[in-house]
Amino acid sequence: MRSGRHVRDRAMAVVALQPGELQREAAFEHARTCPDCARALQQAERLLALVDAELVPTPPSAETLQRVERAVEREMQPARKQPRLLAGLATAAGAGVVLLYAHHLDPSGAAVAATAALLAVAFAWSGVSSRAAVAAAGACAASLLLAVVAAHSPGLFVRVGVHCVAVELFTACWPLAAVAVAVAGGFASRPSAWTTAALAAAGALAGQAALHLGCEVHTATAHLLVFHFGGVVLAALAGSAVPRLIPAPLSHPD
After folding, report:
1. Please, what is the average pLDDT of the chain?
2. Which pLDDT score, from 0 to 100, does residue 223 have?
3. How many angstroms separate the CA atoms of 57 and 10, rounded?
4. Which of 23, 196, 172 lies closest to 98 in space, CA to CA?
């Protein structure tokens, strides 16, 4: 570019060039002796500065940064999830212990109880899913259905009922203990209250299935509704408080 060539019509393009480029340097050299070009270049510089200022993004809020940080941490730690298989196996183990004991009392209902126990294990598997509230409600609904189907005679039988509730709470503890150990060891994230409620209800449902063999009054309507179904509901309520009792996970070196 010759020093005598006007640049006012291309002022914006000139100021957008990188400092030191020949065309830019020639244009500013020409503007020293040309007031019109100098004025055009000054206006272009101010306009470019305004455009650059508008393009600077607004910094995100602290709340947004925290949400992003939590999301990144979840993505960076794929192994720290709810231990589905561990909880399901623990529930099956708890039900199996009771089934082995109950089978000696009344072997005639072994097939029915085993089938119901498998249903309970399925609920334990779903109890640690993203829809834990649905799983908890489903376990309670299945418990009520089992009680209604088995009910054929009257009677509450409180003494026996206390034992039945204890059995259901015993089997409810198995999946909760498995999750607590996994969280404390740093192999799983801390579960939600709904998740532990679902796990406890699923474990208690497995115990209720076993009680179809071991309960001496397993056809009494009031007994089934108050103690068998009530035990599952009680386990779900107690399970919802478990996350506050689980110790913080151990830190693992990278």
Report:
1. 78
2. 96
3. 28
4. 172
Quick one: tokens of 5?
């060539």
Angle (deg, nearest 10), helices 158-184 and 193-214? 140
Residues 171, 203: contact at Cβ < 8 Å?
yes
1 pLDDT band (50/70/90 cuts)?
very low
Cβ count within 10 A of residue 20: 7
Percent of the chain with pLDDT over 70: 71
Which residue type does 115 have?
Answer: T
pTM of the model: 0.61
Give the span between the Cα atoms of 34 and 66, in whole angstroms: 55
Contact assessment for residue 176 and residue 238, using Cβ atoms and an 8 Å cutoff: no
Nearest to 213, CA basis, from 108, 139, 116: 108
